[in-house]
Fold this sequence. Notes:
The protein has 8 helices and 22 strands. By secondary structure, it is of the alpha+beta class. An 8-stranded mixed β-sheet has the order 6-7-5-15-16-17-14-20. The chain has a 6-stranded mixed β-sheet with strand order 9-2-1-13-22-21.
Amino acid sequence: MSSxxxxxxxxxxxxxxxxxxxxxHLLREGASVILLTERGLASEASGRSLSWLNSAGERSTPYxxxxxxxxxxxxxxxxxxxxxxxxxxxxxxxxxxxxxxxATEARHAHEKSIGYDSRLLAPEEIAxxxxxxxxxxxxxxxxxxxxxxxVSLPDLIDFLMEEFHxxxxxxxxxxxxxxxxxxxxxxxxxxxxxxxxxxxxSVLVACGAATPAVVEPLGAxxxxxxxVSMLVVTKQVQHEVTAxxxxxxxxxxxxxxGTFALDHDWYEEHITEHxxxxxxxxxxxxxxxxxxxxxxxxxxxxxxxxxxxMGYKPIPGDGxxxxxxxxxVPGCFVAFTHSGATLGLIAGELLAGEILTGKKHPMxxxxxxxxxx
Length: 373
């Protein structure tokens, strides 16, 4: 039996993974959902995310636990059809720059201490752990995390939207900028800049890096540490790589269609933001990233960029997710986090539960927006 009355109506701002996932979870519980996007689906961060599914490295215990739960939900989805080209678990491989072997060892020791599957490898051991890597690119040692994976978020969003439509969700594309309507101190729906109004019992703001700006007029201040970033997709190339790689000069993962997805942060200073909100970067810088990625792949195949997208990567000011109801405006919820891919399914599940029942989930206790009040 559904836990949500049929009259419960929720408006969601944002067509990325957090908004779409929450929408589908709400629909599964019998709610009425309207999803509004400023432009198209996956038009912002979800359309240019490396989307590495992991909880590697060191972070707060609640954040680690939430990320592990997030990976678990992807494992369940993967098990339902392991042949999906857009969701795979081939592990993760990382190493530091030359001379930083001790830092790599310390990270490995921390991961082992919390029960995270972590293997410290010498360069010559990499081939036996994961295929397609040029071990000559590894200066000292590397960490292989066998349980990690990756997802192509645009493909996942398309997959979830099939269920969204089948369950009767309402989609408003290209709605432009929207704001949260408030009456009597409580959320009453959303209004677009063009004058469209959409009444709702609850609203979720999941607008990526724009989320703090959307809720600021409501008296909710959320620090925004979002940097400009880029995702490059290469032309098709023959390779055997299955792992996500996080290295000093390039991050790389397999991508549907025999391509690679690439990103990093060293090129941020070369990105120019224009007055109309668009971004540009010199073509030779994009090619330089592809050349750095080529050094990681066995045989060093020539990698040619096919497309690249730039924009703000959502990161809250303190680095921790911001998930849950605003104390200033009951009925208005937010979803703002750096790890949108890893948390996409679990955050949608837990937020939908809170929106429908009013009961706060303990796993989100430390991520409330009220911590900034």
